[in-house]
Write a structure and sequence with these properties.
Blueprint: H1 13-30, H2 39-42, H3 44-48, H4 52-72, H5 78-93, H6 111-116, H7 120-136, H8 142-163, H9 171-186, H10 190-209, H11 221-241, H12 252-258, H13 260-264, E1 265-267, E2 270-271, H14 285-294, H15 317-325, E3 339-343, E4 348-352, E5 356-361, E6 364-365, E7 377-381, E8 384-387, E9 418-420, E10 428-432, E11 434-439, E12 442-446, E13 456-466, E14 469-478, E15 483-489, E16 494-496, E17 499-502, E18 505-509, H16 513-516, E19 520-530, E20 545-554, E21 561-569
Length: 570
């Protein structure tokens, strides 16, 4: 099929904003040879577990591809086309388009397993190169054009057709299958697409099934833009190709998913950092403007916080291109306002006030990009997370293995949740919360199912959002139950009697004297360092961060305990 975009980037003030850093990078690249991907860097992951060195060069190739493509689509000079052809040739030279961490069998895998693995990055690369192929057509040198075509078919389309490939029910289904199908269409392989269409559309349904019907992305806001973005890129091309007879955007679940981003942004560029998510995110404006045109209830983000060249350090071409072509100057940004959102099936709850925002979650401990965080919450004031969720860790070796919950960011010891009889929450689908009730300013969850503790019969956690903060009440019942109430922050706290000062807030143990003051023991603060993931988008965090773990400890009792806390502005 013909690419739906014209062969020149739209000329407007927004394009000029995006092109400014691109032009500077392009001038530098003209004097900088393309770096190769050496063997020693490729196997460094297998030998040391470090992904950084190899992936830095790999993503630099993609940055260069973005830069020269934008230059060719916005300027006529031959030097930009030559630069683009060089990086296309270099990407075709790469031993594999997959990342070493995604090759089954690792270093011991056979040659084809390395070279023909269709992972997220290999599929994205095929999509990117097929878009360049379709947009530029005969402007590309015949040898370059033919090589791009053959490499996409050899590395991606042939394995998909011959090996009956499929992917897990998460962002992989959308990104991998969506990219494969898009490449087929853009290369003009319509007969191949027709043979694969049923499988490709099944993968899109697999992706949608990774969401509850309420439309919450439990992988976090960044992964919403990633997985759902590639779903939309593919769905838009298929709708164009089929002349509207296949329209995935008519699905009501897709409509609900489309609204997730605007609800999960807490303030400016700050987002709910549940699951594997950063704390702040500059989003791709093209995808969001497309969705705002598609659905009246979707609102556009503030352009001050849109992604430009180096905000997405994976340099994903599909997003990059659509930030130019899908931008719509008539879209007005959403305004900060007091509002409540609750995804009842996912059990996420958010309340935004004029001066602060609150979010909590239930769910279970076998979610996509899972953290053991049932009952966890955050409180944001301005740009400061008073009570924090540490978000995602650097993707070190072991992060996606049975060692996952050794990391502070994923373990319940790194979340603001109770510790019961010295026991942390356990991973697994069976460890789950129940959403009991919620309204405009309150939410109540039953958390006892998150713990493997004999004698614990109930643990009800209630939040009420006040005008100057939040009240938390935990009601605990069972035999000989000892509770430690943990609160996590990255702001160094100060103990003040039965309270703790965190920035401009006080965390106060407000347990009433007529109930159980005799069970209160002490407050302690410990600290632990962790490595947040910084290499995907800009974050307001350092390479090594300190988490402060505030513990209010209560002695064991068989009586019903009602433990109250207020977190209020001073």
């Amino acid at each position: 099929m013909k690419h739906p975009f014209v062969s020149k980037i739209p000329s407007n003030a927004h394009s000029e904003k995006l092109l400014k850093p691109i032009r500077a990078a392009a001038k530098t690249y003209l004097d900088t040879p393309v770096e190769s991907l050496p063997y020693t860097q490729y196997v460094s992951y297998y030998k040391t577990g470090n992904r950084t060195a190899y992936e830095a060069i790999y993503t630099e190739h993609r940055r260069r591809l973005n830069v020269f493509t934008a230059m060719v689509l916005s300027a006529e000079e031959e030097k930009w086309l030559l630069g683009l052809e060089d990086i296309l040739w270099a990407i075709c030279d790469e031993f594999t388009w997959a990342l070493p961490a995604h090759v089954r069998g690792r270093e011991q895998a056979d040659m084809d397993e390395h070279m023909l693995t269709v992972d997220l990055f290999a599929a994205e690369t095929a999509f990117a190169l097929s878009e360049v192929y379709a947009l530029l057509g005969e402007r590309l040198a015949p040898l370059v054009r033919e090589r791009v075509y053959r490499e996409i078919k050899r590395r991606i389309i042939a394995p998909y057709m011959e090996q009956n490939l499929s992917w897990p029910k998460n962002n992989w289904s959308a990104v991998c299958a969506g990219s494969v199908g898009s490449a087929m269409l853009l290369l003009g392989l319509e007969d191949t697409f027709e043979r694969a269409k049923e499988r490709l559309l099944r993968s899109m349904q697999d992706f949608l099934e990774s969401y509850h019907d309420d439309g919450c992305c439990m992988e976090g806001v960044l992964y919403w833009g990633y997985g759902f973005g590639y779903f939309c890129f593919f769905a838009a091309l298929v709708r164009e190709y089929s002349h509207g007879t296949v329209d995935l955007f008519k699905d009501e679940k897709v409509r609900r998913i489309a609204s997730f981003r605007q609800k999960a942004f807490l303030h400016d560029d700050l987002i709910v950092p549940f699951a594997d998510a950063p704390h702040n995110l500059n989003c791709h404006i093209g995808l969001n403007h497309f969705l705002a045109r598609e659905y009246t209830e979707v609102t556009a983000p503030d352009e001050r916080y849109e992604a430009i060249l180096d905000d997405d350090t994976r340099y994903r071409f599909a997003d990059f291109l659509r930030d130019f072509y899908w931008y719509d100057e008539t879209q007005k940004p959403q305004q900060d306002k007091a509002e409540t959102a609750c995804w009842e099936e996912a059990q996420w709850y958010i309340r935004k006030e004029k001066g602060f925002a609150f979010a909590c979650k239930g769910g279970d401990n076998d979610e996509p990009h899972n953290h053991n965080d049932i009952g966890g919450f955050v409180l944001l004031d301005g740009r400061a997370f008073i009570i924090d969720d540490l978000g995602w860790s650097e993707y070190l070796y072991g992060y996606f293995t049975d060692r996952r919950y050794e990391f502070l960011c994923t373990s319940s010891r790194g979340h603001s949740v109770p510790i019961v009889n010295g026991t942390y929450q356990q991973p697994g689908k069976q460890y789950a919360a129940k959403l009991l009730e919620h309204d405009e300013k309150s939410c109540t969850l039953e958390l006892s199912g998150a713990y493997d503790v004999g004698g614990l019969s109930a643990l009800k956690r209630s939040f009420t959002v006040e005008k100057d903060g939040v009240t938390l009440t935990d009601t605990v019942s069972g035999e000989d139950i000892q509770i430690t109430e943990r609160f996590v922050t990255r702001i160094e706290p100060v103990i003040e009697g039965n309270a703790v000062r965190i920035g401009q807030y006080r965390l106060i143990c407000d347990t009433k004297a007529d109930i159980s003051t005799d069970i209160f023991v002490d407050i302690s603060v410990s600290s632990e360092q962790f490595e947040p993931r910084l290499n995907i988008c800009k974050m307001e965090m350092r390479p090594v961060e300190t988490a402060y773990l505030i513990d209010f400890r209560f002695s064991a009792t068989s009586r019903v305990q009602q433990l109250r806390f207020t977190i209020q502005q001073v």
